[in-house]
Amino acid sequence: MLNHQAKRFPIYLTMLCLLLVCSIIISINAGYIHIPLNRVIATLTGNGLEQDEITIFSFRLPKIFMAMLVGMGMAVSGAIFQAITKNPLADPGILGINAGAGFAIVVYTFFIQGVIFSIEWLSIFFMPFVALVGALLAASLIYLLAWKKGNVTPTRMLLIGIGINSAFGAGITILQLKMEPINFMKTIVWLSGTIWGTSWTFIWVLLPWLLVLIPYTIYKSRVLDIMTLGDQVSISVGISLMRDRLRLLFIAVLLAGVCVAVGGGITFLGLIAPHIARRLVGATHYQIIPISALLGGLLLVVSDMIGRIIMAPTELPVGIILSIIGAPYFIYLMFMKK
Length: 338
What we know:
Elements: H1 2-29, H2 37-44, H3 50-85, H4 97-116, H5 120-146, E1 147-148, E2 151-152, H6 154-177, H7 181-191, H8 200-219, H9 221-227, H10 231-236, H11 241-263, H12 269-281, H13 285-310, H14 318-336
Antiparallel strand pairs: 1-2
């Protein structure tokens, strides 16, 4: 069975790469301003019209690439959470990690941004660190409150995560009520999961994080495999369980935090993509992580494309599209979980 899964892995990897490229090309052409495919190709090869170059290179391509990167980061974060908690329902959005990062961003925007930074690009580069603080705060609270008799049970962690999610959500609402109407509407749209970082600057902010954290996760995939077998097995084969668990938890929180900083409150993606990946390639994380990353990028690019088409010229936040897909899947998993 393992040999069969190993043979399927490069096939699925190639297919998902092709689907991702196709979805990017189709997404460039989708939206209120329709650009025929031949003009898209001409623009990408440097022979297009000036208005097409502005539309594609200044607006659509940055948002598409941002959706792809955010989808990859959130999917890998979800795969790590599910492995270290041994809980198939774990997801950074459900556990409250996204809410913690979002709360930190809202606090930063409300109290600090205009006071400290007058240079916009400097503020953009600082935002992932702000989101990381909020995400780490949420993760620390969940881990400490879920700790009981020297152990953290998956069910207890999930239930406490839902409570933390609600608490941070309430804090965000209180701050929103004190905002100016225009800022209030901006945060509402952002928290619903819109890819709001639609410039190349945001991509250069997010890309280095993913280039470091995702390969490191693949490198630690053997540790994730062992963790899914249980604490006793992990200790018996010689891994430092507590150290590796905290290290990987930090990586998952970091991925979720930086993605929330530029992508908003996107939920269920970290739940769906790893589940589909396991169905395709089995339980080996060396295969699950890259497949989850590609699936996450593909799902978010397609969801963003649907959001631009379904109510054109108004764009529907990508988080709403994912919630429509993810909520029924979450309920299905709850019924199927023994």
